[in-house]
Amino acid sequence: xxxxxxxxxxxxxxxxxxxxxxxxxxxxxxxxxxxxxxxxxxxxxxxxxxxxxxxxxxxxxxxxxxxxxxxxxxxxxxxxxxxxxxxxxxxxxxxxxxxxxxxxxxxxxxxxxxxxxxxxxxxxxxxx
Length: 128
Hints:
Blueprint: H1 13-26, E1 33-36, E2 43-51, E3 57-63, E4 66-67, E5 73-75, H2 78-87, H3 115-126
Antiparallel strand pairs: 1-2, 2-3, 3-4, 3-5
Helix pairs in contact: 1-2, 1-3
């Protein structure tokens, strides 16, 4: 786990947010869902998900790479999700700082969404 003092507070920005959305819209992870999430057994931290059936984008804690039933925050529009994600940073998504998302600060620093994680997943999605 990473201490809050070691986390970057630079916003991800619109370009990274839009690239993330394009990856989420393009594929399927499980059923109607696509995800940027860790894929291993048990608790897999936080993931970003897109439900192709409803069009929703959401952040959720995950088990075995699948979202928990209770999402942490959900966006019904792509533009709202892009605006939110563009303003986030490693620090803001770490769980180390107070926020108004219920249950978000559980397991602070444990398998969270970071710029490095997003960039690695976006690069992986481009691989043949």
